[in-house]
C-alpha cells in the first residue's frame, strides 16, 4: 500500500511538474498580442540578443459556442494560445498531436468533446468552428471534460493576459524580470513556476527520505550497541558502511536545489523566511484572479500532498512494526516491491507515463535487505548470550 500510494503521488507530482518549467507572467489589465511579440523578437534577433526565452501567450475562454461541420454545437472552454502547448498542458494524445505555434487553422480537442460532437475519438480532420474561424481537428487528447485548444495567428492583434517564459538554462523569476525589463510590455505579475515544481519534487521525495533516514538511524544505533564488543564491531562496521553508502547515494539522487533557495551571503539568516513570505504573497495575489491552469496546479498540489501523507502513514506503521527475519521472506518482499513498481508503471503508461528512477526501485529493496540482516544479527547475538543449557 505504501508503494502504491507513493507511485500515485509521484505520478501526480510529475504530471504537474511537466508544466511548471517556465516562469508565468500575468497582466491585470491589457497584455501582449502575437503581433507585438513577434515585432519585439525581430528587434532582439537583429541586435543579436543572447538567451531569448521560449515565449507562449495564452488565454482561457469559458463556455464558448463550438460547432462542427454538421451544425451540431456544444458549449465548452477554449484554450487559445500563441506558442508551445507543452508550456501549459501535459496531455496524453490518443491520436494526432497538438497544433504548432502559429498554426491558426488547426486545433486539438479532448476526448470528451470528441464524443460530444462526433460520438467517438476518431475525429482527426473534422471541422470545428469557433466564432468566425474554422479549424481542422489535428489531435485528440485524453480527458473527459470538453476542451478545445487553438493557436492564434502571428499577425493577430488580440491581447493575451498571460505569458510563459521558458529559459534553456532553467532561469527563474530573476531571469524573467531581466528579460521583460528590455521590452515595452509593462510590469506584469510574475510567479516562479520552477520553484513550485521543485516543491512537487520535494513532496514526492519525502517517502524515500523517511526510509533512508530510518535506515541510517538503525545502522548507527546498532553500531553504538556493539561498542563494547570489538570483534563483532569489526565484522559489523564494513557491512554497515556499505549499506550506509548505498543509502546516501540513493538519497543524493534528489533534484538539485534551485538557485532561488541559495542566498548570496550565508550570513543572511533572514533570507529563507523573507523568500517564503514573498512567495506566499505572490501565490495569494496570483490566486486572487485564478485561471483554469492555476486551479489545476492547486488541485495537483493538494492531491500530491494527500497521497504522500497516506504513503507516510503506511510507512510509519511498516517501519515501526514490521520485521523481516528470514532470507526467503526478504527475497519475496524485494520481488513484491519490484512487481508493485512495475504494475504501477504499466498502469500509468497510458496516462502519460510514470518516471521511476533507480532510487525508487532500489530504496525499498535496500531497506528490506538491511532489516533482514540486522534482525538475523540480533537473533544470533541473543542466541549466543543465552546459557548453554537454555539453547534450543
In brief:
The chain has 392 residues and is α+β, with helices and mostly antiparallel strands. It has ten helices and ten strands.
Characterization of the model:
- The structure is a single chain.
- This protein is of the alpha+beta class and 392 residues long.
- 51% of the residues lie in helices and 16% in strands.
- It contains ten helices and ten strands.
- It has a six-stranded mixed β-barrel with strand order 2-3-8-5-7-6.
- Helix 5 packs parallel to helix 8.
- The longest helix is centred in the middle third of the chain and has 33 residues.
- The protein is globular and about 85 Å long.
- The two termini are 37 Å apart.
- The C terminus is likely disordered.
Amino acid at each position: 500500500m505504501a508503494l502504491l500510494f507513493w507511485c500515485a503521488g509521484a505520478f501526480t507530482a510529475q504530471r504537474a511538474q511537466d508544466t511548471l518549467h517556465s516562469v508565468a507572467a500575468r497582466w491585470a489589465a491589457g497584455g501582449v498580442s502575437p503581433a507585438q511579440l513577434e515585432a519585439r523578437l525581430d528587434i532582439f534577433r537583429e541586435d543579436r540578443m543572447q538567451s531569448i526565452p521560449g515565449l507562449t501567450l495564452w488565454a482561457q475562454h469559458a463556455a464558448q459556442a463550438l460547432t462542427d461541420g454538421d451544425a451540431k454545437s456544444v458549449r465548452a472552454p477554449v484554450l487559445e494560445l500563441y506558442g508551445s502547448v507543452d508550456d501549459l498542458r501535459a496531455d496524453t494524445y490518443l491520436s494526432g498531436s497538438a497544433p504548432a505555434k502559429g498554426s491558426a487553422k488547426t486545433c486539438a480537442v479532448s476526448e470528451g468533446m470528441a464524443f460530444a460532437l462526433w460520438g467517438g475519438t476518431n475525429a482527426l480532420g473534422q471541422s470545428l468552428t469557433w466564432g468566425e474561424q474554422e479549424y481542422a481537428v489535428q489531435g485528440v487528447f485524453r480527458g473527459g471534460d470538453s476542451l478545445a485548444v487553438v493557436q492564434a495567428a502571428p499577425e493577430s492583434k488580440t491581447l493575451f493576459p498571460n505569458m510563459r517564459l521558458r529559459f534553456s538554462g532553467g532561469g527563474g523569476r530573476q531571469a524573467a524580470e531581466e528579460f521583460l525589463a528590455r521590452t515595452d510590455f509593462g510590469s506584469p505579475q510574475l510567479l516562479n513556476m520552477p520553484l513550485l515544481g521543485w516543491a512537487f519534487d520535494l513532496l514526492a521525495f519525502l517517502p524515500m527520505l523517511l526510509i533512508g533516514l530510518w535506515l541510517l538511524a538503525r545502522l548507527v544505533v546498532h553500531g553504538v550497541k556493539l561498542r563494547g564488543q570489538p570483534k563483532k564491531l569489526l565484522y559489523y562496521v564494513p557491512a554497515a558502511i556499505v549499506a550506509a553508502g548505498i543509502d546516501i547515494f540513493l538519497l543524493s539522487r534528489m533534484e538539485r536545489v534551485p538557485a532561488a533557495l541559495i542566498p548570496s551571503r550565508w550570513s543572511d539568516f533572514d533570507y529563507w523566511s523573507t523568500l517564503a513570505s514573498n512567495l506566499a504573497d505572490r501565490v495569494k495575489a496570483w490566486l486572487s484572479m485564478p485561471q483554469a491552469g492555476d486551479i489545476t496546479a492547486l488541485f495537483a498540489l493538494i492531491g500530491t500532498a494527500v497521497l504522500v501523507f497516506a504513503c507516510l502513514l503506511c510507512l510509519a506503521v511498516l517501519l515501526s512494526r514490521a520485521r523481516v527475519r528470514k532470507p526467503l521472506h526478504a527475497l519475496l518482499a524485494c520481488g513484491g516491491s519490484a512487481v508493485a513498481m512495475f504494475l504501477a508503471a504499466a498502469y500509468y503508461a497510458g496516462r502519460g507515463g510514470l518516471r521511476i528512477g533507480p532510487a525508487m526501485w532500489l530504496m525499498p529493496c535496500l531497506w528490506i535487505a538491511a532489516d533482514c540482516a540486522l534482525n538475523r544479527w540480533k537473533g544470533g547475538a541473543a542466541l549466543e548470550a543465552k546459557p548453554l543449557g537454555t539453547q534450543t
